[in-house]
Design goal:
This protein is mainly α and about 260 residues long. Helices cover about 75% and strands about 0% of the residues. Helix 5 runs parallel beside helix 8 (about 180-190) and helix 6 runs antiparallel to helix 7. The radius of gyration is 21 Å and the shape is globular.
Length: about 260
């Protein structure tokens, strides 16, 4: 559903900026945020059913869960990999309009790329969510990050054309947030679901640090060198780093259960 919103958002933004200006465009997004706040107020906890009659569960505190996670090498590697995810996608989201202008394309090309990204992210997320239930999640993540690196290489080094740009939107969109199902799946598979929100929140925090640097360094490199190329080169290198960093993760669940 987030991807559907991402598909319509660039299209609406392009239209609204031309028709109404930036103030009314931002007001529209404010209304969506207020709507989401109202809907969120009606969310209620789901009652848990005890289905472990013959299993004794060793009670774990949140402090114990955090200590266990940070002592697990796979958790640290996952944090490192998701940092790259944030850098990758925010660099594109924040700077693709400027990059396309730098390469001599009309403004609509960047909006088309972002819209296609949202559309094909639907298919990518569903595909890798399905595959995460059947295959090794760390291998899927390595494939995803390697594919991102290859798509960026092709986008940067192929002769610039509208077809290349739109193809980039399709392919990168397919890989956009497809990292979330296997990443979240690894956390729950290793540590269980009791503190899943907390542990995945920590992993996602590293994603947001990467997002900050993706946005900041894109602008910094442009100011220094009058080109976004160096930021994209860094993104390509990080993609291949993330390809390797997931491979040593041990996906086996942490044992905290004993049969009574």
């Amino acid at each position: 559903m987030a991807s559907i919103g991402y598909f319509f958002s660039p299209l609406y933004t392009k239209y609204a900026l031309s028709a109404y200006g930036w103030e009314k465009t931002l007001q529209t997004f404010l209304y969506f945020i207020i709507f989401a706040m109202i809907v969120a107020a009606f969310l209620v906890p789901v009652k848990k059913n005890n289905t472990t009659n013959n299993i004794k569960i060793n009670e774990q505190t949140i402090g114990g869960a955090l200590k266990e996670a940070f002592n697990h090498k796979g958790f640290i590697l996952l944090i490192s990999g998701f940092f790259v995810c944030g850098f990758n996608i925010t660099l594109v989201a924040a700077h693709i309009p400027g990059y396309m202008q730098e390469r001599g394309f009309e403004a609509w090309t960047a909006f088309a790329i972002l819209s296609l990204t949202g559309l094909f992210n639907i298919f990518g997320t569903l595909t890798f969510g399905f595959l995460s239930g059947k295959y090794s999640k760390k291998i899927l993540l390595s494939i995803l990050y390697f594919s991102r690196g290859i798509v960026l290489v092709l986008f940067i080094f192929l002769p610039p054309s509208r077809y290349t740009a739109l193809g980039f939107g399709v392919l990168y969109g397919y890989l956009w947030l497809a990292t979330i199902p296997p990443t979240n799946g690894i956390v729950s598979q290793i540590f269980g679901t009791e503190y899943l929100a907390t542990l995945y929140g920590i992993v996602f925090f590293s994603h947001q640090i990467g997002s900050f640097l993706g946005a900041y360094l894109g602008g910094y490199f442009f100011d220094q060198y009058s080109s976004y190329d160096y930021a994209f080169y860094l993104s390509i290198g990080l993609s291949f780093f993330a390809t390797l960093v997931h491979l040593p993760i041990d996906e086996k669940p942490v044992m905290r259960f004993s049969v009574t």
